[in-house]
């Protein structure tokens, strides 16, 4: 069964790229054929090291793609306006994803910022993209959340937004788990476990600093995937 897995977040800088890399490494370790696509990459100059470069480095996935790369570290529409660039349309993103899904068992889509960040200047978001590719392959959604104060509200708002659009009940990942968690963080994790969503696990703080060999070896121990390979 081919599957498209969307990795979105409760906010920006919550650990989506690390979660994408860990998911890719875990699926690849199970023998899955994995490709990764990011519709919009902002804040990286041409030739710079972007999120997809980091996923390829850590997870060892050979097929990584970007819909567009923009220099300014802003939301996609604002960044494109500053550069006088055209953003890919929703249909173009669907075409790219469909091409990848035709030859790979699992296609991971890393969003930009949170779930409802606009991708194309036509008010389409990652949520809309996930809805548009449901006919291409089975769809799953992973929400990456913070460990600290405020994460419960942000996570439940994101889950509610997904469910209100008829998208699958998401799975949850804590994007960065400290080596010495506070009482608040431990309580938050317990609460996230209790939500009506699969809790896949927590990525250790500093995972990006690991040697790629160690990252690939450890990633399957961080995440408990619900039969995605």
From TrEMBL:
NCBIfam families: bioD (TIGR00347)
Protein name from the UniProt record: ATP-dependent dethiobiotin synthetase BioD
Residues that hold ATP according to the record: 51, 110-113, 175-176, 205
Coiled coil: none
Stated family: Belongs to the dethiobiotin synthetase family.
Keyword Nucleotide-binding: yes
Record gene name: bioD
Keyword terms: ATP-binding, Biotin biosynthesis, Cytoplasm, Ligase, Magnesium, Metal-binding, Nucleotide-binding
Summary of subunit composition and partner proteins: Homodimer.
UniProt lineage: Bacteria, Bacillati, Actinomycetota, Actinomycetes, Micrococcales
Gene Ontology MF annotations: ATP binding; dethiobiotin synthase activity; magnesium ion binding
Chief location category: cytoplasm
CDD domains listed in its UniProt record: DTBS
Enzyme class: ligase
Species of provenance: Arthrobacter alpinus
One example of a Gene Ontology biological process annotation: biotin biosynthetic process
């Amino acid at each position: 069964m081919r599957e498209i897995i969307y990795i979105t977040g409760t906010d920006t800088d919550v650990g989506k790229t690390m979660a994408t890399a860990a998911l890719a490494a875990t699926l690849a370790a199970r023998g899955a054929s994995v490709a990764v696509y990011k519709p919009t990459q902002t804040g990286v100059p041409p030739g710079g090291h972007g999120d997809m470069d980091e996923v390829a480095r850590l997870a060892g996935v050979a097929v990584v793609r970007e819909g567009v790369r923009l220099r300014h570290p802003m939301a996609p529409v604002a960044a494109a306006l500053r550069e006088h660039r055209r953003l890919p349309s929703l249909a173009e993103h669907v075409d790219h994803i469909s091409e990848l899904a035709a030859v790979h068992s699992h296609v991971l889509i890393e969003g930009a910022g949170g779930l409802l960040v606009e991708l194309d200047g036509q008010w389409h978001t990652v949520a809309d993209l996930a809805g548009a590719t449901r006919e291409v392959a089975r769809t799953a959604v992973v929400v990456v959340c913070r460990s600290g104060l405020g994460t419960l509200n942000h996570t439940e708002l994101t889950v509610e937004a997904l469910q209100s659009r008829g998208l699958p009940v998401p799975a949850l990942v804590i994007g960065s788990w400290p080596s010495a968690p506070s009482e608040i963080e431990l309580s938050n994790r317990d609460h996230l476990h209790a939500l009506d969503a699969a809790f896949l696990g927590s990525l250790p703080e500093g995972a990006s600093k690991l040697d790629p060999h160690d990252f690939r070896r450890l990633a399957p121990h961080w995440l408990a995937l619900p039969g995605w390979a």
